[in-house]
Structure formats: C-alpha cells, structure tokens
Amino acid sequence: MSYKQFSNIIQHKWLWLGVLIILAYLSPYFINGENTHLRIHDNMDSNVVWYKVLAESGKIFTLQDVMLPYAIDGLPRSALPSPFDAVVWLYVLFEPITAYTISQTIMRLAAYFGMYLLLTRFVLAKDTTPWITVGVSLAFAMLPYWPSGALSIAGIPLALYVFLTIRKYKSEAPKHVWVFLVIIPFFSNFILSFVFFVGLMGVLWLVDYIRQKEWNWSFFKALCLMTSMYLVKNYLLITSMFFDSNFTSHREELDLGYNSFERSYELAWENFLYGHTHDEAHQAYIIVPIILFALFLAIFKKVQPKLLITLFLSNLILSFWYAFWYWEGWRLIKDEISIVNTFNFARIHFLDPTIWYIAFAIALVIIWKYAKLGKYLVILVLIAQSLYLFVLTEDIKYGEVGTPTFNEFYSEELFTEIKQYIGEDPSSYRVVSIGMHPTIAQYNGFYTLDTYNNSFPLEYKHNFREVIADELDKSPSLKNYFDTWGGRLYMYVAEHGENYMFTKDRNEPIQQLDINTEALKNLGGDYILSAVPINNADEINLELENRFEHEDSPWEIYLYQVS
C-alpha cells in the first residue's frame, strides 16, 4: 500500500469504520451460509425460488413469453425476473445462498455510500461532523430492507445523488455518475419503486425549466437513459401486458381497497410511524422524536429549516396517499379504469426510508449546532439507532422467532428421499402442498400445480379455485383473500387460515379437508405433499403412500396419492 493510499484511508477513517461495521452486520451470511435464518415472507417463499428455477430453466433469454412447466403446468416467462436483472446472473454463477449473500452485500454497501454521497455533496454543509454523515449513512445501510429488492429501495439515495450531480454539472458531470446510472437499473425494480423515482426526477426537470427558462439537456438525457433501460429490461412484461391478446393475467380481477375512511385514517398514521413490511425505516421511537425536537429548537432559535419541514410533511402526505389508496371511495375509479386497479400506485411509499434518513441527518445537524449538550445527544442517538438496527440483521431477527434456517426451510435431503420414493422423473407428475409453501417443492425440483407469483393466467386461477372452493366457503377471510387478490395459489385449509408453516412440532391433523380431488385430478394432480396428517383422506380419494422425516429438517411430510 502506497503512502497516498494509506493517507486517504486515515483521512476517511470514519467512513471506512462504517464499512467494517457493515461487514460485521453481514457476517452471519458469510459464516453460517445455509444455516442462516432468513426472512420467509416475500423472500424464501417466492423470490429466492424464482431466481433459482429461472437460472436452471434454460429460458433466461426468450423473445416470446414462453411457458415454464415447473409451476401451474405452464407459468408465463414474464412472471419471473428479467434476463437483464443482475441478481438472476448471481444465481446462475453461484449457489443460491452465495448469490443471496452477494446481493445483500451489494445492497448494504450501495445504501451506505449512496446516502453518504447524497448527504455530503447535496444536503449537508461540507464541515458537517462525520458523526452525522457516516452515522446516518450507516443506520440507513442496516435497515431491514426487503431482501429480494436489491437496490429498489436501498439504492434510491445513490440514484438521487447521480441525478442531482448531472443536474448540477450538466455535460461536465463526472463519468462515474453515468456509470452508476447505467448499473442501478440492473439491480432494481422499475415497477416497484423506480417508476416513481424517475417520475419525480421528471417533475424536477420541468420545475427547473419553469424557474430558469432553460432546458437542462444532460438531465433530460439521464432521465431518458434510465427509463429506456428499464423498458428494455422489462420487455417481456411489457409485451405480455400490451401485445399478447392470448394472455389475461389474474391481476385483471384484483378487487382490493375496501377500507373504511376510519380504517384508512388509522393506516395512514400506522405507516407514518412504523412503515410498511417492505420498507421499514424504524423511525417511530428515535427519528420522529428527534425531528420534532429539532423543529421546536429551530423555532426557538429562529432558524427556518425549510427542507426538514418539507421532507417531514412529504412523508406524512405519502403515508396518507398509501393508506387511502385502499379506501373504498377509490373503487368507483378502480372499477372503471383497468390500470388504476391492476397497478399499485400506493407503492410510492417505498421512497419513505430515504426521506426519513435525510430528514434525520438535517435534524441532527440542527441539534448539534443549537442545543446545549447537543453534540453528546447526537452521538448518543446515532449509537442507539445503529445498535437497534444492527441486531435486526436477518439471522438474529428471524432466529429469535424460531424461523427455520435456509437449509432447514428447503430441506433438500428430505425432498430428495421423497423423489426417490416416487421413482419417476418429476416432470412426469404434478404435486400440490398443504401446510407449507409450494415454493419449497419447486426449489427441490418438483413440478407443482400451486404457486406464488405476481402474475399468471386468470383462467388457471378459476380452474384451481374449483379444487379449494369448499374450503374457501368455510372461511370468509380466506375466500376474500383468494378472490380479491389471489397471488398465492395455495391449497388453502380453513382450519389453518393464512398459516403455511406447519413444522413437525405443530402438525396436528386436519380433521375435515374438503377439497375437490376430481378437479385436482383434472388439473393433472398426482400427489399431495402434506405437512400434516389428513384424517379424512380415504373419504376424499387420497391414499397415504408414506411418511417422510429427517433429523435435520423441521418438516414431516405425508405423501398422499390422488386416486
């Protein structure tokens, strides 16, 4: 290492200390590997398997929306990630847990450096203490992001830094920001969050023109480049939605949003304080009080923190927009305009974490400058928030609540035994699962008639409903869940409700399963992989073939043949 490099590290020692803390935060993935506890909801029950089966399908690149036979006897290729999704290629090159770990590492480091660059270059004064610039960036990087989102939420500060740099320097913007601009779409989801980000950048571009009476063409080129990349990335989804008359998605029958005004109002404040499961900023107990204290302090000191007020009110508005998107009053419009019904405009709330942590940094600067003992309070607050978030790493968080590890959840050895017992090529028969997520079977190479995906043929949903209709009739909540959304094509059991994790320590038998096995047979169903015994199996033409168990697996699987 040269003296210049060493000097640079010393100069930015606090920044590199933050990197070391992030690596410590990530260490369970590297140390435990498949024995790491991971989030199940919208992660191991879905995206992890989608990436794996796509990587193994031989259908990553297709010009047309071909059908993949591993699920529902033909899942449209457009229902799975784009071939231009960088995470797909991580799953091609590495084992799933390794790909997952690399993705997490990229996410955290991008969040950290993105927020740091944004704060130091555009939000805070150059002489701001690294306690705030590094501390806030570190806390932001350790948020419990939706793991499969990659840079969809965590990368927004980096994207904002890129656009603000191009906006400021125009054609003289440094090359590295254009490199970031090109890379970000490969690691992020346009429909989930960046459609809103790009839209807001477009509004900013227009506002600049109105104010300055001059077009910023470099900024416009950046907008066009990012938008074009997302459109190319999502070519399969776009062609299936707008140019394939033979495909009607189940999303056409989405019927969400019947909350009362009172419930919508409550939900707005819940989101404002506690966030959404996919974008938790953990703002309620430290960040919001600190912002309020900073605002009162600013009033007392006759300071006008316009940006802080704007950001705080913006998140309040976004929370109300999110909550009232599900208000029953919207149904009149949703029932008439398809795109309003099928596209979730409430997802703009995924911008919340970025807004909260920029506001947090500004509030801390005010306290540092104007409060008596403010420096000590700021340091204490940053340490408290960082420690709180550090222990929310997946392995600790989900280990404490008894979630299976990656290895336990998918239990490859157990399901290999089941495949060997059946003794046929998995492509020659079809299975469904009861008491566990069907993606577990998919991960292990089974071809399933049940699934969890963002889009699939509406006709298949109707046919599958015939299998579980009697169980849905026994549970109004399950019936409403399936009929109004239906993204989870599961073998619902009224006795189970929306619980799909019946491990062998809690596998009480189903007393009365009312499914239409004839309809299941017509769909091609041959076997049921049940995590619990079915007491009335004989009455509904199910024959117990065998029971499977493995000492390292949390599952006890009852294999029933549909006769």
UniProtKB/TrEMBL annotation:
Keywords on record: Membrane, Transmembrane, Transmembrane helix
Pfam families noted in UniProt: DUF6044 (PF19510)
Record field: transmembrane: 14-31, 97-119, 131-164, 176-207, 282-300, 307-327, 354-371, 376-393
Keyword set includes Cytoplasm: no
Keyword Transmembrane helix: yes
Superkingdom as given in the UniProt entry: Bacteria
Name this polypeptide is given: Hypothetical conserved protein
Protein's organism: Oceanobacillus iheyensis (strain DSM 14371 / CIP 107618 / JCM 11309 / KCTC 3954 / HTE831)
